[in-house]
Every structure is written in structure tokens, then in C-alpha cells.
Design brief:
Elements lengths: L1 H14 L4 H11 L3 H17 L3 H14 L4 H13 L3 H13 L5 H13 L3 H14 L4 H13 L3 H14 L4 H6 L1
Helix pairs in contact: 3-4, 3-5, 4-5, 5-6, 6-7, 7-8, 7-9, 8-9, 9-10
Length: 180
């Protein structure tokens, strides 16, 4: 029966246009250990997100987070996908978890600040981004998003300061001029 099953499967893949390369990839995926599978799905999820396929990427990254709940990069990447899909609350939760796992990168503060702004939590965005702006003085998006949060709070002088700092980092940035 095994020979018959193998014959049937090989006939099935030929009839349905499944390439030998796809079969090899399928077999390789299921022969991976847990860590290798996590790395594979994380890499694949990031690639899909870069292609703008955030829903598909989120599906893969959700699996990674379930399999490795302390994986900071997976939490970050899934948080970014959720933010792109307008799931701000879920994005905030994941990005906060990633931040709490250790040394956070400036990009994490910037994205988390944006999630707070989109969720209408401008005070939290200011509380997060103000020390981040001091720590990462040359990070454009941190200053830009701090300016957005101050602007939403009606603190226009503080918003202008943040936008001007952002412009010093990237002179000529059009979106900063429009925000002013």
C-alpha cells in the first residue's frame, strides 16, 4: 500500500501541476525541528509583509508567536502587520510585549508610538516617544510621530519643536512640512 500511496501521490502532483521542487520544499518543511520551523515562518512572514500581503503575513507570524511567545522579532513583526491591518489595540499589546523583553530598538518605539496615536492614546504616545527622542536623537520617525502626538493634543509649540527636530534630521521631508 505504501508503494501504491507514493505512486498515487506522485501521479496526483503531476496531474495537478505541483512541481517536484514544491514537493521537496513540502518534505523539507515537515522534516524541520521546531526552531528551524519558527525561523522559516518568521522569514516567510516578513517577506510577505514586505510585499504588502499583511493578512497572509499575519497568519504565519501568529503561528510563530504561538510557538515561540518570547520571540521579540516575531512579536514586533506581527505588531507591525496588525497596525497595517488597522488592529491598533492588538498591535499595541504585541509591541508592548516586544518592548518588555529587553533592549528595544528605536524602530520599536516609533511603531509603538504610531499605534498609540492611531488608537487615540496620544498621551501614551508622548510618554513613550519623549524619552525615546532624547535617547535616539537622530531617529526621524520618533521625532515626527512625537510631533503628531503633540499636535493631536493641541500642544502646537511642542509639535513644531518636534517637527523641526525631525526636519534637521531629514531636511526636505515633505510629510513633515505638510504636518506643520
Amino acid at each position: 500500500l505504501e508503494d501504491l500511496g507514493l505512486w498515487f501521490f506522485s501521479g496526483f502532483h503531476v496531474l495537478h501541476g505541483i512541481s517536484d521542487r514544491a514537493i521537496e520544499g513540502f518534505n523539507r518543511l515537515f522534516s524541520m525541528d521546531g526552531d528551524s520551523r519558527v525561523r522559516y515562518y518568521l522569514k516567510r512572514g516578513v517577506r510577505l509583509a514586505q510585499q504588502g500581503q499583511h493578512k497572509k503575513a499575519a497568519s504565519l507570524l501568529e503561528w510563530v508567536v504561538k510557538s515561540a511567545p518570547q520571540h521579540r522579532d516575531a512579536l514586533f513583526q506581527l505588531g507591525v502587520c496588525y497596525l497595517k491591518l488597522d488592529f491598533s489595540r492588538q498591535a499595541i499589546s504585541l509591541l508592548e510585549q516586544a518592548k518588555d523583553l529587553g533592549e528595544a530598538r528605536p524602530q520599536l518605539f516609533s511603531i509603538l508610538g504610531m499605534a498609540y496615536i492611531r488608537a487615540g492614546h496620544d498621551h501614551k504616545a508622548v510618554a513613550l516617544l519623549t524619552p525615546a527622542a532624547e535617547r535616539y536623537g537622530d531617529h526621524f520617525n520618533i521625532h515626527y510621530r512625537l510631533g503628531l502626538a503633540w499636535n493631536n493634543l493641541g500642544e502646537f509649540n511642542r509639535a513644531m519643536e518636534a517637527f523641526q527636530t525631525a526636519l534637521k534630521i531629514r531636511p526636505g521631508e515633505a510629510k513633515t512640512y505638510r504636518s506643520m
